[in-house]
Design a protein that fits this description.
The chain has about 350 residues and is an alpha/beta fold. It has one domain (about 10-30, about 65-344): 4-Layer Sandwich (Metallo-beta-lactamase, Chain A), CATH 3.60.15.10. Helices cover about 35% and strands about 25% of the residues. The chain has helices spanning about 10-20, 25-35, 40-45, 105-110, 130-135, 135-145, 160-170, 170-180, 245-250, 265-270, 275-285, 290-300, 320-330; strands at about 65-75, 90-95, 95-100, 120-125, 150-155, 190-195, 200-205, 210-215, 220-230, 235, 255-260, 305-310, 335, 340-344. A 7-stranded mixed sheet has the order 6-5-4-3-2-1-14. Helix 1 packs antiparallel against helix 2 and helix 10 (about 265-270) runs antiparallel to helix 11.
């Protein structure tokens, strides 16, 4: 069984999982195990053996081509959060890792999830906002400093190529030292950036087909949602977007839709002391998708499972039940409130 890393779960979430069976058996079991904190119970139920404070070990290679989806970071916004890491996700097929967005700390989150950084094959950036690209270069540098020695294709909006060049220039001294002193292969030839500016097929390899749709995240443009058609299922990432017909079309019939979400009532409390509160709220309202709308989008797309992700605000404590109930009222399929390191 693939190793699952336990998400941090609140008492409110434990209560909520008892009342809402559609949240999912696996997540409920992980929540109960973590709440109990008993290693013996974890082993008896076949739950992950990585306990709090223990060193994670690499997950076994999955040779049967079944896909694994790991939510590496589920916060929204550029500032570091206490309870959620910055936006990042991973799909693992066989021994290949596909990373979607590179928020701050993505390399550490991957290690905590038991993933081998040397197995990164492709990296996808949904849009050029710092909470999604802050560790784009760092992820590849740290993977290379670990054991990455094979080519990584990176995909995203402009100026991805220039970003790559400047990052390599910024770290030229360290890279040169490690190449000469540690015998590592040259890093620059291993990173191959591809800029995308329109919807359509992004890439296809022996594991997956990736398709992009343009979404609206003003004032950032272009911004993309991605669909991964894997051997066993289809997984769609909304990226940051307001309600989008293009996303509905992209996600039509998908097995999983990972969608951003915003609580506008909570936003009012968060921004009230900001000097630019009115302007900030106007941006958030124009560029993101309210909870009820996320449920409607999932229903229109006819997806099987909706995973809430990229929570805005990410600073206020909002019980899982608030997100779940607001979305579930408009979507009859399975709803999962995402947490860092959750595997689906």
């Amino acid at each position: 069984m693939p190793r699952l890393s336990q998400p941090r779960v609140s008492a409110d979430h434990l209560d909520h999982t008892r009342n809402h069976p559609l949240i999912g058996v696996d997540h409920r079991r992980r929540a109960l195990l973590q709440g109990a904190g008993l290693a013996l119970a974890a082993l008896a139920l076949g739950a992950p053996r990585t306990l709090r404070g223990a060193m994670p070990t690499p997950a076994p290679v999955n040779h049967d081509k079944r896909s694994r989806l790991i939510l590496l970071g589920t916060a929204g916004g550029p500032t570091p959060k206490v309870d959620r890491s910055a936006p990042a996700n991973a799909i693992i097929i066989g021994d290949a890792i596909y990373v979607i967005d590179c928020g701050d700390g993505v390399a550490r989150q991957m290690v905590k999830a038991g993933l081998d950084l040397g197995h990164i094959r492709d990296v996808f950036i949904t849009h050029q906002h710092s909470d999604h690209n802050a560790d784009y270069g760092n992820l590849l540098l740290l993977a290379w400093a670990t054991d990455l020695h094979t080519r990584v294709n990176t995909w995203g909006p402009p100026p991805l190529k220039r970003m790559t060049e400047l990052f390599l220039e910024l770290n030229e001294y360290d890279i040169h030292i490690r190449e000469t002193d540690e015998g590592r292969p040259p890093l620059a030839p291993l990173i191959v950036p591809h800029e995308i500016t329109r919807a359509g097929l992004v890439m296809r390899d022996d594991n997956v087909k990736v398709t992009a749709a343009l979404v609206q995240h003003p004032p950032v443009t272009p911004a993309f949602a991605y669909r991964f058609d894997c051997p066993d299922r289809s997984i769609v990432f909304s990226g940051d977007t307001r309600p989008s017909d293009n996303l509905v079309e992209l996600a039509h019939g998908a097995d999983i839709l990972v969608h951003e979400v915003i609580d506008l009532k909570a936003i009012d409390a968060v921004v009230k002391d900001e000097a630019m509160a009115t302007r900030l709220r106007a941006h958030l309202e124009a560029a993101h998708t309210p909870m009820s709308e996320v449920g409607k989008i999932a229903a229109r797309a006819g997806v099987k499972t909706l995973v809430l992700n990229h929570f805005v605000p990410g600073t206020a404590h909002i019980p899982d039940a608030v997100w779940y109930d607001a979305v579930k009222a408009h979507f009859k399929g399975r709803v999962i409130v995402g947490h860092d390191l959750m595997e689906l």
